[in-house]
Fold this protein.
Amino acid sequence: MTTRDLTFPVARGQGATSSLVYVTIAVGLALMQALFVARTVGASMVAVAAIGGGAAAVVLGLAGWWWSRRRRAPAPTVALRGDALVVSWWPQPLALGSATITVGSWTIAGLDTPRGAYLEVVGGGRRLRLGAAVDHRAHGATGAPQHKVDGELAPEAFTHLVEALRGPAAPAPGNQVELVARRSALGMMAPWLLTIVGVSAWSLLLAALVPIERLSSTPGGMLLVFGPIVGGIGVGIAVTMRKAGRARRPALVLQLDDDGVSQWRQGVLEASRPWGALRVTRARYELRSRYYQATFPVIEIAPRAGQAGDVIRVVGWDRGVAWPDATPRRYRAPPYLLEAASWRRLVRLLGSHLD
């Protein structure tokens, strides 16, 4: 273990801010549903207003407490002191003697495309995860992809800290491209949609079966009405956030060399095809709605006539690359997604094979 003393400034993550935003949204939605039920069953609006005022006071109090602590806190740092890691927002140093050190891909929540790399240090029942806007493949990333980090380091500081803790690692081959499976918006929102349907059905069923006077005149009746509503919405938001926040590994890895394209799935070679058996073409994905319109570049790797194999369609999340206007349009989203840096690397590796 290194004996050098190193100190790095850290930009703390916005986890607390995000949590307060989600809590505020949950309280607002719960109150809207409560008002709807109150009008349906004839419950007292005074009770609803009291519940809303109390919830708003809790949210505002938490926001004020968090903001006051943030303003008083000194600039966060992480320092390497001999065989310990000193984290400024922790009361005790983290001993590195028996700690496990992992580097992995820091990904964008909801897209799962890389935004950089993270360094994770686990020891003494604690875990520190720091991210940076660097290529995770250049640091020998082996850990599972993660969306959340405790703070962000400058790229140079991240590289110095990783090398000091673990030593230099062999970078991944430069001719590999990791493809991320595109997430379905409906699949991500399914828990929340089911929550709204379930809470609304409960409200209407309760209004139809139980006398209005009984519900609105007793504390137990009010609890029977509003308890499942608030609890159901809270559980729905928690499940939706957990589902959206779960990072996924790349679905497919393409390896491109002078001979052709090999595709790997979960570390197993799935297919290897020479360039002569493939046709690589451009396309454009048109994303249109009433209020929004965008065009994204697409690459299609397909077998030539008479050749077997699957068609691989990849869309680049890169508005800086525009295919010619005559490029064929596609209105169905391709199954695989790449962020800008990986997309440009794929275009470079395809080179003259791209029609």
Observations:
- DSSP finds seven helices and 19 strands in the chain.
